[in-house]
Amino acid sequence: MLDTDAPKEGRRAARNRRDTREAILNCAEQLLQRCGYSGFAYQQIGAQLGIRNAAIHYHFPAKADLGIALVQRYRARFAAWGAALSPALDGAARLRAYFALYAEHLEADGCRLCPGGALAAEFGTLPDAIRLEVRLLMREMHTWLTQTLEQGRRDRTLDFGGDVDGKAVQVGAALQGGLQIARLAGPERFHQLLEQLSLELSPQRTAAGG
Asked: Of 197, 201, 195, 199, which is closest to residue 159 (Cα–Cα)?
């Protein structure tokens, strides 16, 4: 007689493994944003999730494997976020959405850094495979920001002097640095930064000054 419960048990076990893997990634991402890559170990993940280190090693044999998975997941989330934005948004609206994406980190305890920024701070000591993923992430975010600034200049909802690529570097660096300053001085400093960036990119400011 066929054991009809066997396929169900297999599916349940596979689902449990996926849930455990996702829980490990979620916990590791929070630790990364608060403590940095070198500031946490599998023991902390196990303690927070109530699982043994062996369960973590099953999914991520080495910490570098976990780091790679974290960045790859963040890259996929960023791509999905960008794809979900309405095509009808103008450049300024897209940029505001980008600002809001960074501002979400202020709601977390202690003003967490974004994963890319947290890893960039330790870039020189990261394993090569993680460094490659971080470079890809930063390149993708820079490309998105450059395209958004180009769109804003084209549809006249944004205005700024100089090269678009250079402006994207400036805005990206300001946002990354702003989160670190917010850790020391409070979230209001980051909101001040967003207000200043918005003011400097506003066409109305340029018109009034001209």
From this structure: 201
